[in-house]
Structures are given as C-alpha cells and as structure tokens.
Amino acid sequence: MYDLIIIGAGPAGLTAGLYAARGRINALLLERFSPGGQVLTTDWVENYPGFPEGISGFELMEKMKTQAEHFGLPIRMEEVIGLELHPEKKVVITHKEHLEAKALILTLGATPKKLGIEGEEPLIGKGVSYCATCDGPFYREQEVAVIGGGDTALEEALFLTRFAGGIHLIHRRDRLRAVKLLQDRAMAEEKIEFIWDTVPIRILGESGVEGIEFKNVKTGEISRKEVQGVFVFIGTQPNSNVINGMVKQDEKGFVMTDEKMETSIPGVFAAGDIRSKALRQVSTAVGDGANAAFFAERFIENME
Q1: Does the annotation mark 135 as catalytic?
Q2: What is the reported pLDDT for 43?
Q3: pTM above 0.90, yes or no
Q4: Is 134 a catalytic residue?
C-alpha cells in the first residue's frame, strides 16, 4: 500500500509529488498522457514568478517534472478508470491494476469547453481547434476566427498573429474579460478584428472549415465570415468523470475543498484546476499542490 497516490501530472500534481517525495512519503503519481497538463499547450508563460522574460509551457513543465523526479517521485503513465474511497484506504483502479493508498490527491485538471453548435463536432481537427499553440502554424496567411473574451482567448489570438493573415475575435459582450495588459496588446494588433455582442451559431464546411455564421445578440442580425480555422476559448470544464459524485462538487462539477485542500471525504484531497475556485493559473495550481501534499502528510501521520 502506498502512503499517497496523486492522480494527474499537471502543475498541481507535480508540485504535490515534489513535496511528497521530498518529505520521504511513499507516493506515486499517475498520469494518462504526458506530464504537464494544459500548460503543455501554452506557447509562452510570462506570469509565473521567477522567469522575468517568460518561459515556454513545455520547458516549465519539463523543469517541474525533472525536479520532482530528482527527489525520487515515481511517475507512471496509466489512466485511472475508477475509485473506491473507504475510510481505511483509497483504491485506485487502472486498466492494469488496483492500487491502494492511505491518502489520495486529485489533480485531474480541466479541459476546454465546446461551443455545442452545428458543424463543430464533425470539423474538430479539420479546422476547429481548442489550442492555437498546437495548430496555429497550419494557418499561415489564412483567415481564422477566435471565440472568447478572456485571458486565454486573447493570449491565443495574439499567438495566432504570427501565422494567420487575419483574426476575427468574436465575443458575446461589448467588453473583454481579459486583464488590461492583454487587452491593450490585442487592441494594438492590426491583424485582430473585434466582433462585439456576437455569438457563433454555425461552423460551415464539410471536409474542412470554410466559414463561420454568427448572430448579434442585440440586433438579431445574422452574418458570416469566410475563415479556414475556428479557435474556441470559452472556458473549461473539470475532468471529473472518474469522481462520479463520490466527493462534493459544485454545480459545474468542480471539486469542493476546505482550506486544507481536503474534500468531503477525509483523506481525499484536490488541487489545481479540478478544484472549485475563482482563479485557475499555474501559480495557483502550484500553491494548491503544495498545500494538498502538506495536509495529506498530516492525515497519514494521524492514521499511524
């Protein structure tokens, strides 16, 4: 039996693993894909302390992974498909095995929300994308639409200016939600056109994106733009399927915790983007992960 199992190797999971390994806790970190989480799709991180010039998302996560492994944290590539949460032990079920631990930290993260409009699903990977860093280079000198008005939408729109000929940023309100610095940069970028008070209603195309149809929410007027790509940044949803209501969640499915990062079940902690909170950033995930590991260690000590 492990002392601690951590599920998810994003910033929160890697930090929790680092603290656990450094504290000589018998811990295991499980990750279904590659360690790094959503940060791997971020071209440049410039608001994480310690890197005044910024750092690529890939490099930052590689450093976190290397540091955790330096202290002896085992990281295993296995997908968790089920949980059994008992008072005396937590059982983690993968395709290969059943693993037992005294405590559990959920760092499952979140994934981008979809628009849910006609044409979106069949064109995913054929012009519809949720990651400009991943797919931006495919759209050199082409027209693309960006949906959203928060930090991520503007960051990705600015990244796309390196490749696209024109970017049509569609936002349902008449003002942006992003931080002022990003707003100023985007407003100053001649490649970005803002389409205000507007929601997308249909993505056009068969074998690939050919255009987007949208409606002005104030006038009801329907318009369309010829674009070859549609990038969607309208928020995230928790990767909470494996939890399946076993711990208390908010109305959106994010896991609720106390200030110790502990969930409604003693010995089960949550950290990072899976947690119900106002701000989801690398820095807040790291703080969550450190706290979760600290209080998980306290829980384990009290068991003994």
Answers
A1: yes
A2: 79
A3: no
A4: yes
